[in-house]
Amino acid sequence: MKELVIVSGKGGTGKTTLAASFAALSNDKVMADCDVDAADLHLLLKPNILKTEKFISSQVAVIDQESCLACDICRNVCRFDAISEDYVVNPMDCEGCRFCERMCPIEAIHMEKQENGRWHIAETEFGPMVFAQLGVAEENSGQLVSLVRKEAQKLAKENNLNYIIIDGPPGVGCPVNSAITGAQLAVIVTEPTMSGIHDLMRILELTRQFRVPALVIVNKFDLNLENTKEIKSYCQKQQVEVVGEIPFDPGVIEALKAGEILVRFSGDGKVSEIVADIWKRVFNRLQLI
Amino acid sequence: MVISVASGKGGTGKTTIAVNLALALSNTQYLDCDVEEPNGHIFLKPDITKRVSVTLPYPRVNYDKCDFCGDCAKICEYGAIAVVKNQVLIFDDLCHSCGSCVMLCPQKAIYEVPQEIGIIEIGEGKGVLFAHGILKLGSTRAHPLVQEVKKYSDVSKTIIIDAPPGTSCPVVEAVKNADFCLLVTEPTPFGLNDLKLAVEMTREIGVPFGIVINRSDGKDSIIFDYARAENIPILLKIPMEREIAEAYSRGISLVESDDNYREVFRKLFADIQGRVGL
Question: Is residue A30 scored above 80 in pLDDT?
């Protein structure tokens, strides 16, 4: 089983647009939306949800106001400033370490489990899919990403499918680390803007740290040809292949607005052809690994 | 006055709005709290006058004292410690630096060492006071780094905070305590879906907010219908224009490429002032 993960560093470069197109162009795979902060892939793949489960991973401290002696020990040991002067725990700041609970001399503190989000197993026109939504203002996005990947692996095994395509989160932090670790190949979607280049360098370095081979796609390449040139020469120096360049095309936005998958959207079809060609190259590379 | 600029979806134009507000107004400070991918410096081109390393304490074991009782591994709620035969394994990427293991080790065999999670750079660019955090690659502790960046707030200025994308804890940290939050979106189903999440988050934090529509097609009915139903003000629309995208790609702000935008952002600020009464 092989996992392909689509990441970008910078947000809004076109990860989900490409992930949905790859879903429509391929067989033999499970789709996994690991952008659990702001999952969007389901808007394009329109899945039929078969099963929904709660994601319960964290706990927060609760102080019993009646027995509390106001000794201040909990406030002194808490490193997250989660306990107010009148001994109320702010669940948004509490990281569930239980330090206060363990130090409280009269056991006035107990822990309560929290629902941090939900995850779904679904069926789409293009095969099985796993996706999730982290609750707003929640932590542990990395854990939810790992869970989505594990469930996708299970589904792949059960259905005898050989590939998993992961729509990854933006950034280079905790959820991205969880999305790329152990994957066989990363596709990095960038754009020829100063911000895009800056973020590309960081995500490339991260994939290197995790020893995940990477390919690069330049989206909206003709927006700034000079920057596109710079991206290509940078990638060449880093010995990273640029597998495709997608033009800045109003049709892409039209497809997005219509909630349609790019390669299925009727337009002049040029961009669709380019994306189909990119998928061929990516898939060939994946097979070689 | 502190204005935070956020969005559920990435790439909607948070940095564009934050940078242009900072440039259009006088006496401003720009704090880039998108520590995973900070981009404001590309537009403000600040002279960095100070660099600060941000560290968190991570546990280490004094093997002269450790008797491998395994209590630390049981105590750690994050699974960051494993005790195997004659060795204590510590996984820094899982550790939250809570300090429990240090205090509760019966042999007092655990001590802490500072490890860098990122840096903060402080300076000034184009008349705007500037600070940003840069998360060390591989570090999972964006949230505490955001907290540190916010400590450089200069309350004598109008502070503009550029938040990370998403709705999880580092975003909450960047938005909480602000006087107002601008939610930047785009008129697409993705934009709407992620805007709803951002609205839910901002309501939970309890910060007043309004919407900015970027890449507007003039109608934006998908966002308008939602905003009307939810009674959320739409404060600004920036049109979908290739020229704007090209200027952005070169690292040039709106107010620099078209002077009329100065007035647009000043009006936006006056509007926000009216709403929060500051």
Answer: yes
Please choose, from the candidates B13, B26, B152, the residue with its C-alpha nearest in 3D space to the C-alpha of residue A11. B13
Distance from CA of A138 to the nearest CA of B (A): 5
Q: Are residues A102 and B10, on separate chains, in Cβ contact within 8 Å?
A: no
**Closest by CA position to A131, among listed A56, A2, A12, A37:** A37
Q: What is the pLDDT of residue A139?
A: 78
Tens of pLDDT, residue by residue over A159-173, are: 999 999 999 999 999
Sequence-separated (6 or more) residues with CB below 8 Å from residue A192: A218, A220, A221, A223, A224, A225, A226, A227, A228, A230, A231, B249
Average pLDDT over residues A188-211: 97
Q: Nearest-CA residue of chain B relative to A210?
A: B138
| Domains of chain B, CATH where assigned | 2-45+126-276 (3.40.50.300), 55-116 (3.30.70.20)
pLDDT for residue A266: 66
- Report phi then psi at B69, rounded to 5: -70, -25
Distance from CA of B25 to the nearest CA of A (A): 23
Q: How confident is the model at residue A104 (pLDDT cuts 50, 70, 90)?
A: very high
Partners of residue B81 in chain A, C-beta under 8 Å:
none
Tell me the CATH number at A71. 3.30.70.20
Total count of domains within chain A: 2
Domain assignment of residue A254, given as a range:
2-46+125-288
**Whether A72 and A179 share a structural domain:** no
**A53: part of which helix (H) or strand (E)?**
strand A48-63
Q: Which of B140, B172, B250 sits opposite A137 (nearest CB)?
A: B172
Give average pLDDT by consecutive 10-residue segment, chain B, 278 residues.
96 97 98 97 98 98 97 96 94 95 97 98 98 95 96 98 93 96 97 96 96 95 97 97 94 96 98 92
Measured between CB atoms, which of B11, B36, B104 is closest to A173? B36
On whether both A95 and A129 belong to a single domain, the answer is: no
Q: Based on the fold, state whether residues A73 and A199 are members of the same structural domain.
A: no
Statement to judge: residues A100 and A215 lie in one domain: no
Which residues, other chains included, contact A77 with Cβ-Cβ below 8 Å and sequence gap of 6+? Answer: A99, A100, A103, B99, B103
Mutate to test the interface with B, among A45, A97, A134, A178 (most CBs of B within 10 A): A97
Contact yes or no for B104 and A102 at CB 8 A: yes
pLDDT (tens digit, 9 = 90+) per residue, A2-15? Answer: 999 999 999 999 99
Confidence at residue B252, expressed as pLDDT on a 0 to 100 scale: 97
**Does A194 sit within 8 Å of B39, measured CB to CB?**
yes
Contact B103 A77 (CB under 8 A): yes
ipTM: 0.92
Which among A171, A205, A223 has the least Cβ separation from residue B36? Answer: A171
**Minimal Cβ distance to A256: which of B138, B188, B251:** B188
* B contacts of A177 (beta carbons < 8 Å): 93, 138, 140
Centroid of chain to Cα A260:
21
